[in-house]
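Whether sequence alone determines local backbone shape is best considered at the level of individual chains. Part of our work consisted of pairing the sequence of a single chain with a tokenised description of its backbone. This step matters because it turns folding into a mapping between discrete strings. For completeness, the protein is quoted in full, as a sequence line and a line of structure tokens:

_____
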Amino acid sequence: MNLRASASDLPIMFLGVGILAGEVTILDRISINISPGAPTVLIGPNGSGKTTLLRAAMGLIPPSRGRITWAGREISPPTRRAIVFQRPVMLRRSVYGNISYALASADVPHAQREQRIAELQSLVGLEGLEARPARRLSGGEQQRLALARALARDPAVLFLDEPTASLDPAATKVIEDIVRTISARGIKIVMATHDLGEAKRLAGEIVLLHRGGVIENGPADAFFAAPTTDEAKKFIAGELLV
């Protein structure tokens, strides 16, 4: 399977980005650089702007202010980007049918699809379930199928919005192991999570958001060992940010 990252979309740079919904500011003067390497993990309270930032980086939401560039380009069709939402929609098809549809949508030649389906099922641990209706899978299995469909696009960058939010610890570990495997193959992961433990386990870089703004952004080890802002110290300690 191809599963190799291309530098074509990286770095993704937010340059003073603001996103408004009517009179409400969702993101406020965001300036960050998403570069190749270990996963970039977005953390912060509910409503802090994590999902909006992911959607903007994917190219689904235009900035109201500022600029977003992909490898220096402001207009960049998201052909090498993929996103998995917190509650992915399952097609009324089997596991096989869902992955096959994703491969067809990505213009993968028909002759290559059987091998790619088998490889993707193996990668996400769905071997032997190809005939199972997708909507009859467990929550964790559906999330793994959503990952397989996203990877069918052979993305350079994969955005994940709270992929383990509703899963039990065993299903969460399976998803985290898949994320590590994908990252090790050179695909850039940009992931939002509400779980500080998960952020510690997976992140190479942390972006802490609050009220639509970036509070801290830097290497994960330094962030957790010595946060520099009061907000970050409170958040790591489990206190509420209001």
Notes: Strands lie at 12-21, 24-34, 40-43, 65-70, 81-84, 157-161, 188-192, 205-210, 213-219. The first strand starts at residue 12 and ends at 21.
